[in-house]
Specification:
The structure holds two protein chains of two kinds.
Chain A lengths: L1 H30 L4 H11 L2 H8 L5 H19 L1 H30 L10 E8 L4 E4 L3 H10 L3 E15 L5 E8 L3 H5 L5 E2 L14 E4 L1 H8 L9 E4 L2 E8 L19 E4 L15 E6 L5 H18 L1 H6 L1 E7 H5 L4 H32 L1 H9 L4 H37 L14 H27 L3 H7 L7 H36 L10 E7 L5 H17 L3 E7 L11 E6 L4 H4 L3 E7 L3 H5 L3 E4 L13 E5 H7 L9 E8 L2 E13 L14 E5 L7 E8 L7 H11 L6 E5 H44 L1 H9 L4 H34 L11 H27 L3 H6 L1
Parallel strand pairs in A: 4-9, 6-8, 15-20, 17-19
Antiparallel strand pairs in A: 1-2, 1-10, 1-11, 3-4, 3-7, 3-10, 5-8, 6-9, 7-8, 12-21, 12-22, 13-21, 14-15, 14-18, 16-19, 17-20, 18-19
Helix pairs in contact in A: 1-2, 1-3, 4-14, 5-12, 5-14, 5-15, 12-15, 12-17, 12-23, 13-16, 14-15, 17-23, 17-25, 17-26, 23-26, 25-26
Chain B lengths: L11 H11 L2 E2 H11 L8 H13 L3 E7 L5 E7 L1 H28 L1
Antiparallel strand pairs in B: 1-3, 2-3
Helix pairs in contact in B: 1-2, 1-3, 1-4
The chains are: A alpha+beta, B alpha+beta.
Chain lengths: 873, 110
């Protein structure tokens, strides 16, 4: 408003002034004898009203016009030197493309809000069992009720646990991973079903007919996408249940890997009253929706209060010193991948920096050649600012073209990443070129233009007009330009070195992980899962026994066995406290072990080495002596320096009386198996005979003589003959599990390797450009030197020395940078130290070699020059 | 633009300042005086002159005030300020330098 009034006053003032001049001019014409009418007309023609309008426009149109002029000029100059333009655009497009691809991943995985309604309100509530030393544990049913009733800052609190469920009743039974939830779970996430409805608030499947939500994929695959499925009965978990809805096609559960939630095919309310389950049976993953405006910190404070109340009212939780931890669902879902993605993002940023330095160098070289042109323009009245702007506009034009090309490259790169993406990056499959990514590209393109557009400007600002014109463009280098050039090369080499070290560390980590002994032989091992909940305990033991012999009798099978939880699988883990013979209660506090029930053939089929004692055999019966096998880790911490064989150990068993602690005798010690990750030993392990602790899900491991997957059909037929209601689920080779577990590290290593190679290439090209420019400038000097008796070797040495000095400086800075960076990489490394001597001793010669390659040709050219030609040039 | 030379960009400001250094005058007077002094080589059209006057006033180098002309017309007169005087000598030096440089260049290349 103020501006408007001011500009109106200004316009009036200008009009008055022009009017005055118009009158003066008309008077003069009249004096000269022009008739008054004609005089006024001629005066008005000179001082048109348009002039007033033009002048009173704020920050007048002239600046827009001059910008267009700059643009046209920049376009012409760039077209005049297509070689330079092509190289500059290619380099920048590479840098921008790499960043586009990586940013797309970062955006899709870390930044994009989860596809639930108001995802920022969703939190997970982990239970901290301090005495058991479990920082992120699940809750029990009674604990969930306490949270639901005592907390005031949540709209609603729901819980989930995943297990297996089998659709039977037709010829094609299918077992799917099933989410057992509190009925409010879909509503808490804000799920809108693709068909039908979600669960009603009190729709526990107790007494009444169970209800199910199908995943979109299962509905398509198993039920042919039939919309009439809604309201229809199916047999699920051996009960006739009603399908009430189909989940949206893009529905996924986003939980961190260690919560073992994973992706599900069906969702159903718990088929039993979880609130009546044992107080200390911890299995529920708790999700809550905050009331609008409530922060995670406020919720945490509220839950701290609830935890104190819970500790006071339950002896178990008081003794456990129980606490809660509230975390945002999104932050928790990405916590395991964040550091790797951020490291890759930083690496991509380094590549872009190197690209910018390279282009800055190219521009510098060119602007030195353009000195005369710039000097003439300055002499003709172009201000310093105008010339800097002109150079900047040229940079901007380059960046816009490179940005467009970069988006294309980034798109292709993203397609390639999709092909090698590990499971945890599943969210990138849905990502396309969206506004945030394009905005990011625009931002980095602009920033790059600023960055390298600046370098030549600094130089031209220091240009001495008279000197430049006098030299006619054949100038010696100013110290400013030499400084910038040396700086950019040293910077490039330093950045390249940091990238090479980073890649070296990640590649070495990958190699270490590939060669980890996971505690089993993954080759020629087929695995699949069966859900045996339709059998009672006795039937189950009998079935497993017969089925295992059947498997062994199949042609091509060497050995077979079964276990409740396969290594590296995402079935919710079974672990609990244990107590070794001779340990006091205090010593046993916080002792936790993974527990597995297995058949006699399992450990042998897996190829897990027996270190002492024996494997299970058919004599370990239901009613026999209670026995267990432990791993070497448990044996070493529980009975250090003694043999574990014959010792007693107390751990939870699944018995007909429920889940109770049972004392059993250690009969064997086996090597530790990496159950959860290839790189981490999480907990020691206890194996219990399947006869003595049966559970309803069982994974089989079949060691074959042939390609494992070729046996799948034979096994499926054999199972169908035995029981038409059992489904062969999760048919995978063990090697496939290992591959998936190693994929994240391999992904990071492959990308880091690509970045480092790009960096090396760019650094070599950069140093080549600078040295050959410097050689071409010094040809005359070389000629003089050679005329005065310097040999080719002397000249070669001279040039190489310049290159090596820059390289040395770069490597020196690079080592400092790499030492700083490798500390940040620490959490991504495995099996090597962050100051890994192998990586450093490879990286230094590699960088030096790349630099040498860059210097070699220009140096040779200088050395092989004919002194006469050189002097004449 | 056709017959008389268009003033080189960047030199107009200097010429205006130089003209106003003689005496305060109004816009029309400035363009008359420039034509006179340069013997008609440079013709400053209102389209260039008034934006220049406005720019110079914004920079504080000249100051405008309303007054009466010789034949009792109202007109806006411009006076050179002290900082305008300083600017003029600066521009003069710059011009001399550039002028001699361009000259040398032209001689060197012919």
């Amino acid at each position: 408003m103020f501006w408007f009034r001011k500009s109106r006053a200004r316009r009036q003032e200008i009009e008055a002034e022009l009017e005055a001049c118009r009158n003066l001019l008309a008077d003069r014409f009249i004096e000269q004898g022009v008739p008054p009418g004609e005089a006024r007309r001629r005066a008005s023609a000179e001082y048109s009203g348009r002039l007033a309008a033009q002048m009173s426009e704020p920050s007048s149109g002239t600046s827009v016009e001059s910008c267009l002029q700059d643009l046209r000029y920049a376009w012409r100059t760039l077209r005049k030197s297509p070689g330079f333009t092509f190289i500059a655009i290619l380099t920048l497009a590479l840098g921008i493309g790499v960043n586009t691809a990586i940013f797309s991943v970062v955006y899709a995985v870390l930044l994009r809000p989860l596809p639930y309604s108001h995802p920022e309100q969703l939190v997970l509530i982990w239970t901290k069992y301090q005495k058991l030393t479990i920082p992120r544990g699940p809750a029990s049913g009674p604990l969930l009720r306490e949270i639901q009733q005592r907390c005031r800052l949540f709209q609603d609190v729901a819980a989930i646990w995943t297990g297996n469920g089998t659709f039977t009743g037709d010829d094609n039974p299918e077992q799917v991973k099933t989410a057992f939830v509190t009925p409010n779970f879909p509503a808490v996430l804000g799920l809108k079903p693709a068909l039908g409805r979600v669960f009603l608030p009190k729709e526990e499947s107790l007494g009444g007919r169970p209800v199910i939500l199908l995943s979109h994929g299962l509905w398509q695959r198993h039920f042919g996408g039939d919309p009439r499925m809604i309201g229809r009965g199916v047999t699920f978990l051996d009960e006739s249940s009603t399908v009430v809805g189909v989940l949206p096609s893009d529905f996924q559960l986003y939980f961190s890997t260690d919560s073992n939630v994973g992706q599900v095919g069906a969702m159903t309310p718990f088929p039993y009253d979880i609130y009546r389950s044992p107080v200390t049976l911890y299995f529920l993953r708790v999700v809550a929706r905050l009331k609008p405006g409530v922060t995670v910190q406020q919720a945490q404070a509220d839950l701290d209060r609830v935890a104190a109340q819970v500790r006071a009212s339950y002896n178990e939780f008081g003794a456990e010193n129980l606490n809660f931890q509230v975390v945002s669902l999104q932050a928790d879902a990405t916590r395991e991948v964040r550091s790797a993605l951020i490291a890759l993002f930083a690496g991509a940023g380094f590549v872009l920096l190197i690209c910018c330095l390279n282009v800055a160098n190219l521009l510098l070289v060119r602007s030195s050649g353009r000195r005369k042109e710039i000097a003439v323009r300055a002499a003709l009245g172009a201000s310093g600012g105008r010339i800097v702007r002109q150079l900047f506009v040229e940079g901007l034009v380059l960046c816009v073209i490179a940005g467009l090309a970069g988006v294309g490259l980034g798109w292709a790169g993203l397609r390639a990443l999709l092909a090698i993406r590990p499971d945890y990056l599943s969210r990138i499959s849905g990502v396309g070129l969206n506004w945030p990514v394009l905005a990011f590209v625009a931002a980095i393109a602009f920033a790059s233009a600023l960055l390298f557009g600046l370098a030549p400007s600094i130089e031209s600002a220091k240009t001495n007009l008279t000197m430049a014109l006098r030299d006619g463009g054949r100038t010696t280098r100013t110290s400013a330009s030499r400084g910038i050039r040396a700086f950019s090369i040293v910077g490039e080499i330093a950045l390249g070195f940091v990238l090479v070290i980073g890649a070296g560390l990640l590649i070495r980590t990958n190699n270490k992980i590939q060669s980890v002994d996971p505690g089993f032989e993954a080759q020629r091992l087929l695995t699949f899962e069966l859900d045996l909940s339709s059998y009672n305990r006795t039937q189950r033991i009998q079935f497993v026994n017969e089925w295992e012999s059947k498997l062994r009798s199949l042609p091509g099978v060497e050995s077979a066995g079964a276990v409740t939880h396969l290594p590296l699988d995402d079935y919710p883990n079974w672990y609990g406290p244990y107590r070794g013979e001779g340990m006091t209660e205090n010593q046993a506090a916080g002792m936790l072990a993974d527990e597995r029930a297995s058949t006699p053939g399992y450990l042998r089929a897996m190829g897990t080495k027996l270190l002492a004692g024996r494997f299970f055999d058919d004599q370990d019966r239901v009613d026999g002596r209670q026995v267990v096998i432990v791993d070497d880790w448990l044996a070493a911490v529980t009975w250090p320096g003694q043999s574990a064989i014959g010792k007693k150990i107390e751990a939870e068993h699944f018995t007909p009386r429920g889940i109770v602690p049972v004392w059993a005798e250690v009969v064997g010690v086996v090597e530790h198996v990496r159950n959860h990750s290839l790189s981490k030993k999480l907990r020691p392990q206890i194996y219990i005979p399947y006869t003595q602790t049966t559970r309803d899900h069982l994974s089989f491991a079949v060691r074959t003589r042939l390609d494992p997957l070729s046996l799948a059909d034979t096994i499926r037929r054999a199972l169908h003959e035995r029981n038409r209601n059992l489904a062969l689920a999760k048919v995978r080779t063990m090697a496939n599990y290992v591959e998936h577990a190693a994929a994240p590290v391999r992904f990071t290593a492959v990308l880091a390797g690509i970045f480092a190679s790009l960096a090396l290439l760019l650094a070599a090209v950069g140093i080549y450009g600078v040295i050959s420019y410097s050689v071409s400038r010094r040809m005359h000097e070389m000629g003089v030197r050679m005329a005065l008796g310097a040999t080719s070797a002397d000249v070669l040495r001279l040039v190489m020395k310049e290159g090596l000095a820059l390289t040395g400086g770069g490597v020196f800075l690079g080592v400092i940078g790499a030492l700083a960076v490798s500390r940040a990489l620490q959490s991504l490394l495995y099996g090597i130290s962050a100051v890994d001597l192998v990586s450093y001793s490879v990286a230094i010669p590699v960088i030096a070699l790349a630099a040498l390659l860059g210097c070699w040709r220009p140096a040779q050219r200088a050395a092989s020059a004919n002194p006469v030609d050189a002097l004449r040039s | 633009m056709a017959e008389a030379s268009e003033i080189l960009q960047g030199t107009l400001d200097m010429l205006v300042l130089r003209t106003l250094a003689l005496a305060p005058m109004h816009g029309l007077g400035v363009s008359d005086r420039i034509r006179q002094i340069t013997r008609g080589v440079f013709v400053v059209k209102p389209g260039s002159l008034f934006p220049a006057l406005y720019r110079l006033e914004q920079n504080g180098w000249i100051q405008g005030h309303w007054g009466e002309s010789e034949n009792n017309r109202k007109a806006k007169y411009y006076t050179l300020t002290p900082s305008g005087r300083a600017q003029l000598s600066k521009e003069k030096r710059k011009w001399n330098k550039a002028f001699s440089a361009v000259n040398r260049l032209l001689e060197a290349e012919s």
